[in-house]
Amino acid sequence: MDKETEEDRRDNNSDEEKRNVSPESSEVEDSEMERLRRYLIQKLRLVDLSTSNQSDQSQQRVLRELSLDGIVEYIKEKPDCKIITMAGAGISTSAGIPDFRSPSSGLYHKLDKYNLPYPQAIFELDFFTKNPEPFFTLARELLPEGFRPTMSHYFIRLLWEKGLLLRHYTQNIDTLERVAGLPPEKLVEAHGTFHTGRCLKCRAPYMLSWMKEKILEGMIPKCEECNEGVVKPDIVFFGEMLPERFQELADRDFVQADLLIIMGSSLVVQPFASLVDRVRTTCPRLLINNEKVGMQDRLSRFLGLRQGLVFDTKSTQGGRDIAWLGDCDTGCQLLADKLGWGDELRTLVQKEHDNLDVKNRNDN
């Protein structure tokens, strides 16, 4: 009984101490945390402290309203708005092309029949060099054969037609941006493309039409120049560098962007995911996706680093990032509607799909 009484006494004293913490003590603790934060930032040279407060204030004034309507108002007020779009597999799934990571329908969950040591091996250069057959068997499902670009693809094209698209960066290898009519100079295929290929031995170049014929016949494309090497599509495998075009244009484009729109990407694959941090602190970022992704982690938030998207409007770094959750086609159509382009986008999609249907019938 005495022991319980003593414990109760200690608990009561502890509660009393908490209640008696003065505002001055709390301020001292906050000040110590801020001093620690700034010390770490300075020592690690993570942020220019002389401009951090100014940048935080400017971010608060980027959008008048943290919503899709705020983005629309921002675009309408900037007739020369330079927009960069970033896209992942989510803009192509409605065309019938599976993504990689979905729990039930993703490609990584359908690779058991290939007897791989692990799913990603099918896209590893070392494994491909030793055993290319599983990749080319899978390639028959990935080839842009009969697939039609989606509403999202044509929204990107519409941005270009209106003179607003600075560049489109895509993780996709399906070439649907090209099929949608986006000019090659406006396109950066960060993870490569099926559009071209090269012999791994002599580097002789080949086009999609030649590779497609071999792949659809169930053959491994062999080089007709050296008669030895396998012709590998110019998609980036694990273990390969990203295209030089990606690095060169990313350095130039993102510092110019007035608006960044990210669509249908999980933002987990680097260095593509880190592109969201390369725009200026005054550049709004709109995510159109089924879920929030690419968000700032706790350590980055503590250190004041501008890494990741910040959807918390209470944060000192909030005020420019918007998440619209849903499928990409619906989000793009809604954005077009709000911008007054809705009917134009629907007409474009219908017209282009009709043209593709005629072309496919003639080819067959």
UniProtKB/TrEMBL annotation:
Keywords, comma-separated and alphabetical: Metal-binding, NAD, Transferase, Zinc
Superkingdom to which the source organism belongs: Eukaryota
Pfam family for this entry, one: SIR2
Residues reported in the UniProt entry to bind NAD(+): 89-93, 99-101, 171-174, 289-291, 328
Active site, per annotation: 191 (proton acceptor)
Domain Deacetylase sirtuin-type: from-to ranges: 61-342
Claim: NAD is one of the keywords in the record: yes
Keyword Zinc: yes
Residues binding Zn(2+): 199, 202, 223, 226
Region (Disordered): 1-33
Primary enzyme class: transferase
CDD domains noted in UniProt: SIRT1
Co-factor: note: Binds 1 zinc ion per subunit.
GO molecular function: histone deacetylase activity, NAD-dependent; NAD+ binding; zinc ion binding
UniProt biased composition (Basic and acidic residues): 1-21
Cofactor(s) needed: Zn(2+)
EC number: 2.3.1.286
Reactions the enzyme catalyzes: N(6)-tetradecanoyl-L-lysyl-[protein] + NAD(+) + H2O = 2''-O-tetradecanoyl-ADP-D-ribose + nicotinamide + L-lysyl-[protein]; N(6)-acetyl-L-lysyl-[protein] + NAD(+) + H2O = 2''-O-acetyl-ADP-D-ribose + nicotinamide + L-lysyl-[protein]; N(6)-hexadecanoyl-L-lysyl-[protein] + NAD(+) + H2O = 2''-O-hexadecanoyl-ADP-D-ribose + nicotinamide + L-lysyl-[protein]
CC terms in the record's Gene Ontology section: nucleus
Protein family (similarity comment): Belongs to the sirtuin family. Class I subfamily.
Name of the protein this chain belongs to: NAD-dependent protein deacetylase
